[in-house]
Design goal:
mainly alpha; about 60% helix
Length: about 80
């Protein structure tokens, strides 16, 4: 059952919640805390875009990814 504070409907999936998928995605990743933040934010916006704010959430995800990309050093960008 959806709870707007602990389990909002726009973060639910078919048996998987966004926070659980994100935890799995990030497990073991060796990234800086600020990179983990931008990565997680982008993921949440992509997850919820069809259920909450549509194109606005896609734009937010792109902004987060641009900030993440800007935080990478040249060696990481070339990978």
């Amino acid at each position: 059952m959806s709870d707007p504070v602990t389990a909002p409907a726009h973060y639910e999936g078919s048996g998987v919640e966004c926070k659980d998928a994100m935890k799995s995605m990030m497990h073991g990743a060796d990234v800086a805390p600020s990179q983990a933040y931008w990565w997680g934010c982008a993921f949440k916006y992509v997850w919820r875009w069809p259920r909450k704010n549509g194109a606005e959430d896609i734009k937010k995800a792109i902004t987060c990814l641009e900030l993440l990309l800007g935080s990478l050093d040249d060696k990481e960008v070339k990978r």
